[in-house]
Write a structure and sequence with these properties.
Blueprint lengths: L2 H11 L9 H10 L3 E4 L4 E6 L2 E6 L9 H13 L5
Helix pairs in contact: 1-2
Length: about 80
């Protein structure tokens, strides 16, 4: 994992949650962890990592994830055993 991915991971685990993490950085983080990412309907993104599946919604019209999305990403990463 590169330093940019590590910074994104640390940002996801910060409390209180940040609302300024770009969704593309989160998707890139998933990819660097070895996740399989597929497109769903509309803004849905399916992510499979270590056999655990999650569905997220890309933010729009903004490109930053809101606090609720960041919490969901954190829960997913904790479930698969990923921590900063």
């Amino acid at each position: 994992m590169g330093s940019k991915h590590h910074k994104t991971l640390e940002a996801v685990f910060e409390k209180p949650e940040q609302a300024n993490i770009t969704w593309s950085d989160i998707e890139t983080l998933f990819g660097s962890l070895g996740a399989e990412i597929t497109e769903g309907n509309g803004s849905r993104v399916r992510v499979v990592l270590k056999g655990v599946r999650a569905v997220f919604h890309r933010p729009h019209p903004r490109k930053e994830a809101n606090k609720g999305a960041v919490k969901s990403v954190r829960r997913f990463l904790e479930e698969v055993g990923v921590k900063p």
